Protein: ComEC/Rec2-related protein
Amino acid sequence: MFFYEADYILIGVAFILGLLSIGLGLPWAGLVLLGLGGLLAFLRWRNLLFFRIWRSAPTPRIWLMATGVALLALLYFYLRIPQPGVTDISRVIPRLEVLGGNPIVKVEGTIEDTPLLNRSGKMRFFLNVKRFEAVSKENPETKLSGTASGSLYVTVPAKEAEDLHPSQTIAIRGRLYQPRGGQGSFYQVFNFSQYLAAQGAFAGLAGREIQVLDRGSTWGWWAIRERIYQAQLKALGTPEGPVLSAMVLGSRAVPIPFEVSDEFRRIGLAHALAASGFQTSLILSAVLTLTQRLQDRHKFMIGGGTLFLFGSLSGFAPSVTRAVLMGVASLIALVGEQKTRPVSLLLLIAVAMLVYNPLLIQDLGFQFSFLATLGLIVTAPPIAKRLDWLPANLATLMSVPLAATLWVLPIQLAVFGVFPPYGLLANIVTTFLLEVITIGGFISGLAALIWPLLGTGIAWLMYYPTALLLWIVHFFSRLPGSSLAIGAIAAWQVLSIYGLIFAVWLIPWWQRRWKLASGIAVGLIVVPFLQLQTAAFQVTVLDNTRVPIMVIQEPGANILINSGDENTAAQSVSSFLALQGINQIDWGIATDRTSRTQGGWLKIAESVPVRRFSEIPTARSDEEYRVMLTKLSARVQKQPLRMDQTIGVGSTEVKLLRADPVALQLKIDQLNWLLLTDPRGSAGNEVWLRSARLPTTDVLWWSGRKFPTELIDLVKPRVAILTSTAVAPETLQQLRSAGIQTFTTDRDGAVRWRGGQFEANLESGDAGI
Structure:
């Protein structure tokens, strides 16, 4: 059988669509693909609908073959899903139950990657496990030990991880846990289990102390990266040094301050810190410019070597791998004096990478890289042509980020729910600086490999460009509305918008009506967003197990009860607000005054304005909380919560019944909620509740360590929501025996009330440390 180029393209696209149908979680994906492929083959056979015009379309046999490839892609994806081995360390977790409680586990293994700081202030890395030993807390003589294998996700206190590096053999004591999944029923959260599985890990260890057993090798790519990073850090300090290094080594290998990376992300410049395809193509262009007088084979050798070096330094992230492969293909075409077909080449590389690792279809870096590159190839030239009234250089400068944004925006909104209004302008303004810093950082890195002091000297020249870049990023991130929460768009919206984008690219009729397509795409995003803002009435208890956090949404009013610490606020709370399209908190309430539970209010107010803030002035507080409150007071209107005083926003009323421990009554759409917190050694809620005159409580929301079962008879709720790290099975049984609908945040994740119904969000598991 003779194949045309269009046939290969169709088969390649079918392979990607087959994987995408799984990645998007489409129900009955196989039947949908089979039905769609069969329908298209039939239409091509009969030359019906659009096939009347598209006479050069592949034959029905090719359409059927493409359908078969898509179905095989489904099977291939399932076959390549990582599974724990027979001796994997995750298999030990069920066996630990015989030891009772949470036994201390000692794990020995070799460090696989460079330890980096996480948002909780702990160092994280992966450990290649060799053996383990678990000891019962109740009976230290009861032990469980043996050999094990597999990769283990480890977090340890920062002071314990000083001077750790890959190849070291260490022993860690801590708590072994099963990571939590993230297949939410009403909103998508970070799928910790899936993230670890993609790295080949199926368990986590919250470590406490480390013992180094073998110092390991002192050389390797990690040592080269560290040499470059230290040379540039010495020249520029923090945060300029880490930012410069990140453009060469990638953010996964460099400890960038989170407040800096958050600002880059907020204005749509996250790719600048990722050692992405942008940096790869920029470095290759610089090399080809410098070697333009050399023979083509010398250009190939120098260019190929540079690409390999940059890819190795950055760890061959998906976006870099894509750019390296395209660069190599361009070099081959240069030597062979042939022209490349960029779209076909991009498709070939995508298929090759997915054949090697089909799980990349779920990697956001992979998705963004290929979509942005496709946008630059097919959409940037038409945009530049439309901007021909501008100077040519300016038109090109504007068309590149605009084209990339158009192609990645639907997925960005689906995953994060956020649109950066100043993103296009920020990309245009910073393009020249990013080019200078990238080239300078790469040259500095090469020099540091030869002589660290030389690398430091060259890096020093990059101080003012890097400082200027950081100032611009900080300026844009502090502008009002720098990050607009649209809310997570649904799969049908994503597919519809991409359908319009492809139509404008491929169909002449739509090319002439691109304004109509743009209007429809905007409507697909804006109309559901406006409906959500004007009609949504729901209450969500977030899945934090340490702090009771609630978000109340009703038309014209959004209320947030408690923020958690900075880490919780930056990840869980801010993420939820963005996915719900919340751009303003009308009322923030803090039920206590400690930084451990309320330290995140300032972090939230930086991205989502808080109009009014209430706290309990009589509650105990710590110094960190008071400092945070002083800074927050400059941004918000304060209104204290006083005993037995009813305050309301919208249709929600709040009444403080007790300050410490907290007893807070909420009336939400005719439902009476009662929030009670753990007494922790005080006189307790039981004595107080027996003498207190409480209205009928529909929903008991309790937060603490050990649930007092006496509350069942004292409060008599219809529904109980327990914000706790662990609830005893016998307690759950008592609640259910009393006819009480019960939810726990450690097992069910977030809990939502809407339309008179309560709904749990998650499967069971551990959210990680």
Notes: The chain has a mean pLDDT of 88.
